[in-house]
Design a protein that fits this description.
heterodimer, A: Aldehyde Oxidoreductase, domain 3, 5-stranded mixed sheet, 24% strand, disordered N terminus, B: alpha+beta, 18 helices, 30% helix, 23% strand, binds flavin-adenine dinucleotide, binds FE2/S2 (inorganic) cluster, molybdenum (chain A), Ald_Oxase/Xan_DH_a/b (chain A), AldOxase/xan_DH_MoCoBD1 (chain A), Aldehyde oxidoreductase molybdenum-binding subunit PaoC (chain A), EC 1.2.99.6 (chain A)
Chain lengths: 772, 481
């Protein structure tokens, strides 16, 4: 059957499957599940210091506090004391040492959420304080790091190329971290079952990991733990590993008390305890010719990983893997230091290091364009990888040796320049700026090439479970989790299309480790690629069985059986899908199947930095215009135009939603979202009152978002492309536009740091204008 | 403490660690999604959000921050003055006495017909993860009922991390022309009679004066946008508390030819309506003060009485030469507002004394108020500058300049003022005066801004003031393409 001839619901702009539940308040998140009788509530008592040893603990007041049922410390944990997703370096409760402000030290079990919180504040703990390592400089000086030394990827001899180049630039660039600020905080609920088994509901992107960590913590095989996730109120990577502590706590407390236990972090606790996007410092040197052709680039990445390893290695790897972005760089070296500090353990966040790597090379391009006085778009185009149909370069391989064969940005850039009226506007802005002393406008373009696949190759697999009932209704399950991205809807559209039925026939069900085992986190934008394919496989297995049975009965070729418009067409006969299901059931045909998929072609050696880590690339391009005020550094976006590549989109409206949301989130990262720690390592921006994500009026006044009319050359689900993370990087255009506006105040290159808060912009303008 | 006679104001004994603590409870009556609810023993500092979710199992209203900053908990509250959005996470139950509350569960019709806001949110893909959605729906339903189409302002208090807001605004625009459904229109036409909540919920400033003088240790609760956080974040047990919400006379606004007088309980949105026509720049600052639901609760009295160094109104009012009207029992006194703030954490207010009103002279509009914050909407100021300079024949006749965020209290920039007064109103004078800011303020560095930035931007705001008075475009918010 030709995939594209009759797609059914695929490619239709249907609303999110839970939209009606969302708008009526009926969509259930963990804390909304009707409270089981006797449910207990948990809260952590946390460390007020960044580094030290516990000398003595007096928890008597905690125990005596109203409603407290139990107080647990590391000594009370029956089995392992670990919630790390990687190398067992993250105790659930302090093992006697503390390594960041906010580290859980003891666990309060009480009859109410607020009672647990109130009690948790009453611990009296004496610490022997030690000098913490807080900054990247301190960590470098102390050689405090993960892995034995830096990771280095090299192609050619960049040092020689830069030295020999007609021109060069160098600089250092600070890039702040980012709090996820999922609107629903971390939450979990554990219901003890017979025989010590545990049923856990968790707001997690990774139910299998929760299952794994809970099983370890209560000393049972994974089969004794079932984890269910219907939806999250946002994840963005922050619920890939950070939910472990809550789910494990609930399971341990439930085992301890025999009662259901629920834990949700208060917002401030959430921000103080959980990890965030990795902060980076990127130092660069780039050599190029007078036409702006890159000859060699050197990057030195430093990243603050916090106290535990978590997912920092693959995050830092991905930053290296995006150090080229869209540009064919003949010689390049990337050296990456993963620094261990006494701060929250930085974790996955949309883009997973990719945005940090990408903003590094975009900064270099910005710097070069300024140096040459060349139009920044023109400069970028000159350095693009070749289009597949127009090969001019001898070498189109990335710094890690992967051939770029699907490069879409030439056409996309030209289209966006035209629809956004870039050239005319740029001229108009220059004119406007001449007449202004205090306010200046700026405009900038940034392209995105984002690699799709988990770089840990074995994670690129997925499973599904599909049942067709005898009444023709379909139960759909797969390993992906729903966090708002519309994955469930898109995958249901795939299932409906495979059976040729309407959406109402498909029942979307909660992710459940008892239905589909050994799943990967819903991360790396892989959700619909992996699970869509697994579901397709399951549906096709059932469909083929049905076709075979029915064709036999109707004496025709199984290949001639068609599933369309709620009907099954068997030669000249037509019956409803319902009737076909019923007949198959009576004919003793199995109407249930698993489906499985593993991404082909990927092969990667992360130590050497060589191979094909990605199945394909997703592309995007944005042009943003801003205005800044030199008196205060206040700034605002005036207009944004985006063209994004979702391949042959499974659902264009949901994909546009991802692009709009990601752009605003990416812009927030590089502008107003500033994380501030004090000199004791305490996070000062631990609530929305002090940590400012974009609000409604921060979105661009004019906001044009379009999808590129493309098709994935690789064989993905209906030739679509992943869309979760790539458009986050479009926010880089905002940062570059601010740089452009700032550069209108003087001759020096702005060298703006991120986040470009009003203060940062103000300071940079002064430097550009007055040289101070 | 005097014996409490009112039957509706009870004392409930709570046994805790063998110590008996007494919590004053109150009787209150309100409507919830059209049904009358009477709570005979409401604990005064239970938030509406906790009560809805835990007691009523109405879990549509969400907790995203528990401090008024995200809007996930937004509900619509209707009283005789109309319907407004409020953050239920920092709204105590007694503040609802005699009012009507609607939650997301109560905006579709009885027969399940969706409110147009709900329908358009579906059509325009206004929800992704959906966690912020109930709050957005409630803000939008309230705005729609009130005919408001300034969507960015109406929704400034609702954070969404998924959508980037664009589809939500498209939904809001699509609803504009649609009629308010009858079941929402009639909300508030029949409000319940408020229960007699007792003397700790006084009905007038006289009653307040008495109960506060008798209970000087009590915590006054006005809009609870500060006090709410003492409970939800500070985990403080407050007892007793006195609710000012019922004191209708404290909500009075008087505008004469010569003066403007605002009762202490005038909320920020009501204040904005009075101020906007007189001093548009001050009105614009109030537009950026917190967000719609917080402004619907926060009072001018609370904004002054809390003594915060970063409260937005005090500098503006000081620049206008405001007088603070204080009352204790039957004795009243008036002081210059700037004298109220003695030092950080210390105000000129005696035990049992409360703010009755603030007033200021009506004058020509030479006032400009500038709020500098990381984010334009719903952010606390890093620096708040208020300038009120009059020029006579090219010479500065008077100057009142006050700042917040620059010291432990809001106060005037006397050196700067002196550098201006009597001088020609020229760029040269302004430049000289700008150098004086360092004598008036030694600001600190915190998570909002560095000391250097505070001082620089504060003095630059004088340059902005000068340019603006010369008719130049000075704010990025005024640039449109
Ligand atoms: C999300 C959010 C955003 C905010 N944004 C801003 C902002 O942009 N700008 C700003 O200035 N503030 C802001 N605030 C702070 C707060 O809104 C204000 O300080 C507010 O004005 C307090 O008023 P209230 O009526 O809510 O006071 P309450 O919380 O009820 O009381 C505050 C204090 O004043 C006392 N008090 C109240 N009324 C009287 C009276 N009549 N006499 C004597 N004492 C009294 C109370 O006992 C208490 O000590 C924000 C708060 C929140 C939660
Ligand atoms: S929960 Fe965030 S404003 Fe109430
Ligand atoms: S839809 Fe997720 S926060 Fe708004």
């Amino acid at each position: 059957m030709n995939d594209l001839s009759n797609k059914g619901p695929v490619a239709k702009p249907l609303p999110h499957d839970a939209a009606l539940l969302h708008v009526t308040g009926k969509a259930r998140y963990i804390d909304d599940i009707p409270m089981p009788v006797d449910c207990l509530h948990l809260a952590f008592g946390t460390s007020p210091i960044a580094k030290g040893r516990i000398q003595s603990m007096d928890l008597s007041e905690v125990k005596a506090s109203k409603g407290v049922v139990a107080v647990l410390t590391a000594d009370d944990l029956p089995f392992t004391n670990d919630v790390s997703p990687s190398i067992h370096d993250e105790p659930l409760l302090s093992d006697g040492t503390v390594n960041h402000v906010g580290q859980p030290v003891f666990l309060v079990v009480a009859t109410g959420h607020n009672l647990a919180r109130a009690a948790a504040k009453k611990g009296k703990i004496d610490y022997v304080e030690e000098t913490p390592i807080l900054t990247m400089d301190e960590a470098m000086a102390a050689n405090s790091r993960f892995e034995d030394g830096p990771r280095i990827y090299t192609k050619g001899d960049p040092a020689a190329a830069i030295d020999a180049a007609p021109r060069s630039v160098k600089g250092t660039f600070e890039i702040g971290g980012q709090e996820h600020f999922y609107l629903e905080g971390q939450a979990a609920l554990a219901l003890p079952q017979e025989g010590c088994d545990m049923l856990v509901s968790s707001s997690t992107q990774h139910p299998t990991e929760i299952q794994h960590k809970v099983a370890e913590a209560i000393g049972l095989p994974m089969h004794a733990v079932r984890v269910e996730t219907r939806r999250m109120g946002g994840g963005f990577g922050g619920k890939e590993s950070q939910g472990n502590a809550l789910a494990v706590s609930c399971a341990i407390a439930a085992r301890h008390t025999g009662k259901p236990c629920k834990m949700r972090y208060d917002r401030d606790d959430d921000m103080i305890i959980t990890g965030k996007r990795h902060e980076f410092r990127i130092t660069y040197r780039a050599g190029f010719d007078n036409d702006g052709q890159l000859l060699g680039v050197e990057f030195h990445h430093m990243t603050r990983c916090g106290w535990a390893q978590d997912l920092s290695l693959p995050v830092a790897d991905r930053a290296m893997l995006h150090a080229d972005n869209a540009y064919a760089i003949p010689a390049i070296r990337i050296e990456s230091h993963r620094l261990k500090t006494n701060t929250q353990s930085a974790t996955a966040y949309r883009g997973f290091g990719g945005p940090q790597g990408m903003v590094g090379i975009e900064r270099v391009m910005d710097h070069i364009a300024h140096d040459l006085g060349l139009d920044p778009v023109e400069l970028r185009k000159r350095n693009y990888y070749d289009a597949p149909n127009n090969r001019v370069r001898a070498d189109n391989t990335t710094p890690y040796g992967m051939e770029v064969t699907d490069f879409e940005l030439h056409g996309m850039t030209d289209q966006l320049l035209e629809t956004s009226d870039y050239a005319a506007r740029k001229a108009e802005i220059a004119e406007w700026n001449k007449g202004q002393s205090r306010l200046k406008r700026g405009i900038a373009f940034s392209p995105v090439k984002f690699g799709i696949s988990f770089t840990l190759t074995h994670l690129n697999q997925a499973g599904a479970l599909v049942h067709v009932y005898q009444d023709g209704s379909v139960h759909l399950n797969h390993g992906g989790t729903e966090m708002g991205q519309g994955l469930f809807q898109k995958v249901a559209q795939v299932a409906a299309s495979r059976f040729g039925v309407g959406m109402d026939v498909i029942k979307i069900t909660a992710t459940d480790t008892a239905k589909v085992p050994n799943t990967s986190a819903t991360a790396a934008s892989s959700g619909s690629d992996l699970n869509g394919m697994a579901v397709k496989a399951a549906c096709d297995t059932i469909r083929d069985r049905m076709a075979e049975f029915l064709s036999e009965r109707h004496q025709c070729d199984a290949k001639a059986v068609k599933f369309e418009d709620g009907q099954v067409i068997i030669g000249d006969d037509v019956m409803t899908f319902e009737e076909a299901a019923s007949q198959c059931y009576q004919g003793r045909i199995s109407l249930s199947s698993t489906g499985y998929y593993k991404t082909p072609k990927v092969k990667w050696d992360r130590i050497k930095g060589q191979g094909r880590p990605f199945f394909y690339f997703s592309y995007g391009a944005a042009i943003t215009e801003v205005v800044v005020d030199q008196l205060t550094g206040e700034n605002r976006i005036l207009r944004t135009d985006i063209l994004h590549d979702a391949g042959a989109s499974l659902n264009p409206d949901l994909d546009i939603g991802q692009v709009e949301g990601a752009y605003v989130q990416g812009t927030g990262w590089l502008t107003t979202e500033e994380l501030v720690w004090d000199d004791k390592g305490s996070l000062r921006t631990h609530a929305p009152s002090t940590y400012k994500i974009p609000a409604c009026s921060d979105r661009p006044d004019v906001f044009n978002v379009d999808l590129w009319d493309g098709r994935n050359p690789e064989d993905t689900i209906y030739r679509s492309k992943a869309v979760g993370e790539p458009p986050f990087n479009l926010g880089i255009s905002t940062f570059l536009a601010l740089s452009d506006a700032v550069s209108a105040f003087g001759d020096a290159y702005p060298a703006l740091d991120a986040p470009a808060t009003a203060e940062q912009v103000y300071t940079t303008i002064r430097r550009v204008r007055d040289g101070v | 403490m005097p014996a409490i006679s009112s039957t509706s104001h009870r004392r409930m004994a709570i046994r805790q660690n063998n110590v008996t603590r007494r919590v004053s409870t109150m009787t209150i009556t309100f409507h919830l999604n059209g049904e009358e609810v009477t709570l005979p023993d409401a604990e005064p500092t239970v938030t509406l959000l906790d009560w809805l979710r835990e007691e009523r199992h109405l879990t549509g209203t969400k907790e995203g921050c528990n401090e008024g900053d995200c809007g996930a908990c937004t509900v619509m509250v209707t009283d005789p003055n109309g319907s407004k959005s409020l953050n239920s996470c920092i709204l105590f139950l007694p503040q609802l006495n005699g009012k009507s509350v609607r939650t997301v569960e109560g905006v579709a019709s009885d027969t399940g017909e969706l409110h147009p806001v709900q329908q358009e949110m579906i059509t325009h893909h206004g929800s992704q993860c959906g966690f912020c959605t109930p709050g957005f729906v409630m803000s939008m339903v309230t705005a729609h009922k009130n005919g408001a189409t300034d969507h960015d302002d109406q929704l400034a208090g609702n954070l969404c991390r998924c959508t980037g807001y664009a589809p939500i605004i498209r939904a809001a625009e699509a609803v504009e022309e649609q009629p308010v459904p009858v079941w929402i229109k009639k909300e508030g036409t029949e409000l319940p009679a408020p229960a007699n909540a007792g003397e700790f919920s006084p009905r007038s400033s006289d009653e307040l004066a008495k109960v506060y003088a008798d209970n000087p240790d009590a915590v006054l609760v006005a809009g609870a946008t500060d006090v709410g956080l003492w409970v939800t974040k500070g985990m403080r047990q407050l007892d007793p508390v006195i609710f000012l919400e019922g004191c209708a006379d404290l909500k009075q606004i008087e505008v004469t030819d010569t003066r403007v007088r605002l009762g202490a309980m005038v909320d920020m949105n009501a204040m904005r309506e009075v101020i906007e026509p007189l001093h548009p720049s001050y009105g614009e600052m109030i537009r950026r003060y917190a967000s719609m639901p917080v402004r619907n609760a926060a009072t001018v009295g609370g904004n002054i009485a809390n003594g915060s160094p970063i409260g937005d109104n005090p500098p503006a009012l000081i620049a206008l030469g405001a007088t603070l009207h204080l009352r204790k029992g039957d004795s009243r006194r008036d002081i210059a507002l700037e004298d109220f703030f003695i030092e950080y954490g210390k105000q000129d207010r005696a035990a049992g004394e409360f703010v009755e009103a603030v007033s200021f002279p009506r004058q020509a509009d030479t006032l400009r108020v500038y709020k500098i914050s990381k984010r334009f909407d719903q952010d606390i100021s890093a620096v708040l500058g208020a300038f009120n300079v009059t020029v006579d024949n090219g010479t500065v006749a008077s100057a009142r300049i006050a700042f917040g965020g620059m010291a432990g209290t809001p106060h005037r920039a006397t050196h700067v003022e002196n550098a201006l007064i009597g001088q020609p109103w020229t760029e040269e004078t302004v430049t000289k005066a700008m150098a004086e800011f360092g004598k008036d303020y030694t600001p600190m560095t915190d998570m909002r801004a560095s000391a250097d930035y505070r001082l620089d931007s504060a003095s630059n705001l004088l340059a902005r003031y000068f340019a603006e008075m010369n008719g130049e475009t000075t704010s990025v918010l005024e640039v449109a393409i």
